[in-house]
Amino acid sequence: MDKIKLEILGLSSSQSQSGSFALVLGEKPGNRRLPIIIGMFEAQAIAIEIEKIIPNRPMTHDLFKSFAGNFNFSIKEIIISDLKEGVFFAKIVCANDNKIIEIDSRPSDAIAIGLRFNAPIFTYETILSEAGIELSETEEEEPDIQKELEQIQPKKTKPAMGSEKIKDANMDKLKEMLEKAIEQEDYEKAAKIRDEINKRN
User: Which residue range forms the structural domain that includes residue 82?
Assistant: First the structure.
């Protein structure tokens, strides 16, 4: 199965869940986006590595890197490998001189670890087809990640569209809401609408 390379485009705070973030991955090359909802700790771990901030004490993902290094393991790649009932799954592909091992992981942890090894991130066409959000050529790119990651703190924002409204909307309305969410770069809302559309297909 052919793999599609992804890059990290940005992090944005959740508008409906305090302490949650939308990690936005982009197809490279291509204009599809794959938003994944992650927790604050994982968002912070990703942000710290992107910005090359050195914490006073090693974080969990830094500890993993030290452990792997001392046993001569390296991380070859991260694969967003599956999507079941709206939940993403990932694999960390590890290697040493003798063998290659795949370790199951949450995507957020896998990406936080992969960044520390400069490992590429991949997914499969089936996952991008099901969960990806396609931007038109006229839509703007995501904002500079530096601005998004200045403070990993929940922001006070207006309440997001409730799940009840999403579930009550007909298919045409859902598609209209999806387009609007993408235009506003509200990828968390777009992901919820996308999941509802997929449930009905």
Answer: 3-157
Confirm whether 70 is domain-assigned. yes
Cα 98 from Cα 79, distance rounded (Å): 21
pTM of the predicted model, to two decimals?
A: 0.69
pLDDT along the chain (201 residues), means of 10: 88 70 88 88 86 80 90 93 91 91 94 94 92 68 44 38 70 84 72 80 74
Domain total of the chain: 1
- What is the distance between the alpha carbons of residues 122 and 91, in angstroms, rounded to a whole number? 10
The CATH code of the domain that includes 34 is 3.10.690.10
Side-chain-side CA neighbours of residue 170 (13 Å): 1
